[in-house]
Structure formats: structure tokens, C-alpha cells
């Protein structure tokens, strides 16, 4: 058999969560997170992702995915980028470059948001954290960190203070039904003046925690995640990452905590229909097509891309992102073209595979507006064969 | 997983086991490890004639599709329908319950030219370098 044949052609422009080498940095050695040796120690299989050498799996994608849904999983997301925005112009600047209403954030709150280009396409999807009065932290996608940094600087005529802090942070995601208990037990090892009680989604707490071999480390612990399960994302100083990773795995082992790679990260987010930049969110596709309208606050005032999106809203001709399931035997994957029964090409698949919890071949796809109704029968070209698919409700999975 | 005796192997990581004038085929433990969790198997129709070295089946993991090449010339007499509901058998028992197809052997001499277990083992050490 040919173990190299893949639908995910590394030469394609897509930015799959779990494979692809970064053509933008061809010739440069891939970067490693502070946890590289930990992953090796755990026997991880590696892949190149956006210029980083990352674990794709440890015990296997299916096992890891199921562990997160029923127990808990720990992800290395240190490759993500962090950009700090401070000063008296921080708020007006962020209101201008992002789509969500930053003025609604209190200190200790976070919001999902988008950076748009003037055409209304998506530069990146981000989370904005309000750290202090005039202090905001942006978490950006690993593959877009340089692009976002350049973009944010180029749009800063107002003169906000910007700093690329990506090198200073490591980041871990602790996700799953047992994540709250594991976090609590981990922090309790060195009790301090904080708790995880009443820790609600899209809020975060800054915790000063004693980390062996490091001393007191400042951790930003956010109740956020990319899996659809309860969970937390933990920002820490780079030098503390490995010790915190080991500490969490130790404390969490009796509760079923495992290390989870990028392979399962992708199947988990697909089941809950979270978009991935490069797939469902693209620089060359209007944000209104991607199902993220809920973070676009047209009434907050002027922002980059607002005018283009308003114009599009009135014409309503843009494609729509839909969920699909495969009816015939087979799996549809990213890039597969979609056709009506009359063989008219009307869209393409942005992400697709057979996922462990939903346990069927599913996908997300852009289709022309007339093809977006639930139950619409379409055909996907899978390596020359047409497979019957149909439009189904999103998300494909909801946690109990 | 140690290699079962009496099997022959190809460079594309398929195995063949002669059973009378028929050959049972599948993919090796090395192949299933490289693939990861198998979630879908596309098997040929019975009666289909196959040629050595050309794809006759495909195996899909979460991340990728892989073609499986027929190790010999012949025609398919039976396929492992258990793989429809349980594709993971290929991961769990690639040499036994994870078998893929049984082929009516056109030319038994073809089998003799395939690698023995020992030769395949050396081949695996070579490609690991």
C-alpha cells in the first residue's frame, strides 16, 4: 500500500490543523515548542504544522479523541501566538481592527473575534482577553502569527502600543469532563488565593503559582477551548511549560488525563463545527459566509471590513457554510468539489473525515445560497467517484 | 508484532498467505502503524480481476487515504465484510482477522518471487534508516 498518498497535499494552500509544512518558511528549520522533549518521551508521532514540529498523536487519534470526550486531555498549544495591546489607544485601536465589541469586555473577560481585511475576508480568528484597564492580550493562530503581527502594525495609525509576546508564552489546553477537577487538584498542590469555583466560559483568572524548579510563575488560566468540552487554556512563561505539563499529567492520570495531539484536536473541533482558518475562515472568503456572524457587531462603530460586509448583506449572494454527512459509503475530505444531482458545481468541502464520537463521515462545506437548506442532496467528487452527501444540522455533537 | 511464518511480503507492505490455490491478502503491521486508526476500507467486488502492483483497494485513516496494491495477479473470490463495521480490525490484527481479500491465484510462481518474512524484516530495517 502507499502510505504517502494523502488527500492533504502539502503543496495545497490550505492550512490543515494537523499536517502540512509551512511553504512560507521553506528552507528554515521547523520550530519546537518547550514541550518537544516531553512529546518524544511520550512516544509521539510528529508532523510539521505551520513551521512547527508538533505531535499528531500519541496513543492514536481515535483513542485520544474519545479520552477528551469522556475523561480529559492535555494539548500542547504553545505554537499559538500572543500579541499585547496596551495604552490609551488600545481600545479604539482594537475596536477598529476586530469585529467584536471590545468595549463590552470587563477585566478578566475574553471574547472570540475576527481580524478582517477591507474586503471582509478573514485575516485570522482570535481571542481577545482584557488583562487590565488599558491592557489586552490577543491569542492568534500559530500559522498566522507573523502575518497578523505585520497586519496589526500596518493598521496602527492611531498609535496603540503593540508587542509580539509569542516567544514569552507557552500554552496548554486542558479539556474534558474531568478538566475542572484536575485543574483544581493541580493548583491545590500549592494553595493560593484563588479557586476554580464558578469559573465560567470566556472568563480568565491570573494565578501566581509555585512551579517546581521555576519559583512563582504567573499563569493566565482561561475557561476557553476548541473541543466542545468543558476546559481551560493556560498561558504560562515559556520556561515553566514543561514542568506544568508534567505536573498536570501526574495529577490527572488517576482521572484518565492523557496527552492529545493535533490529529484529535482536528476531529474534536470538527464535530462541534468550530472553524479553522485556512479552511472555513479564509482571507479570500467573506466572513459572512463562515457562520461567524455572531461576533461581527455592525453597530459598535467603524471597523475594517464593515463596509464590504454591509454591502454583501444587502445582496445576500455569498456562499454559505453548511454541515454535511456522507450517504454513500466513503469519506469526503477538504478540497472535494460539490455538485447538484444535475452535475452543476456549487461548492467545495472545507474540512471532512470520519470522526470517533459522531462515528460517521461528516464535513463542512461552502455551498451556493440555494443549496444550503437542511436535507439538500449533493454529490462530492472523491477521487473521481461521485458520493451522495446531504446537508445536515450543525453542530454534529453537543456535550451532555 | 512479530511476522507470522509462511507469509510473503511486498515492498508496499502487503502480505500474502497461500491457502491451496487461493491467496489471502492484507496489509502489514508496519503499514497499519504508519496509517494510524483505520476508519474506512474500500474493498473490491468479488469476481474482479487484479494485477500485481496495481491498486485494488484503499484504506482510510482519519488523516489520509492509502491505496493497497495487489501482490499478485488473479481474481477476487472473497472479501472481508467484517471490515465494513469494524475497520479497526486492520489495526488490531493485521495478519489474521484484519485480512482484506482472498484472491484466486493466476500464477503461483509469482508468490515465490515475493519477500520472505526474513527478507521483509531486513527491508524494514533498511527503510528505517
Structure in a nutshell:
The complex is a heterodimer of chains A (400) and B (129). By secondary structure, chain A is α+β, with helices and mostly antiparallel strands.
Describe it for me?
The complex is a heterodimer of chains A (400) and B (129). Chain A has 400 residues and is of the alpha+beta class. Chain A has eight helices and 19 strands. The two termini of chain A are 40 Å apart. Mean pLDDT of chain A is 93; it is low at 3-25. Chain B has five helices and nine strands. At the A-B interface, helix 2 of A face helix 1, strand 4, strand 6 and strand 7 of B.
Number of strand segments of chain A? 19
Order of helices and strands of chain B: EEEHEEEEEHHEHH
H/I helix tally of chain B:
5
Q: Would you identify the regions of chain A where 5 or more consecutive residues have pLDDT less than 50?
A: 3-25
What is the averaged pLDDT score of chain A?
93
Tell me the greatest interface: A-B, 29 and 26 residues
Given helix and strand content, the structural type of chain B is alpha+beta
Radius of gyration of chain B, in Å, reads: 14 Å
Written as H for each helix and E for each strand, in order along the chain, the element string of chain A is: HEEHEEHEEEHEEHEEEHEHHEEEEEE
Counting DSSP H or I runs of 4 or more residues, the number of helices of chain A is 8
Separation of the first and last Cα atoms of chain B = 20 Å
Average predicted local confidence, pLDDT of chain B: 95
Q: Which shape of chain B, going by the Cα principal axes?
A: globular
List low-confidence stretches of chain B: none
Assembly level: heterodimer
- How much helix is in the residues of chain B? 10-25%
Number of strands of chain B: 9
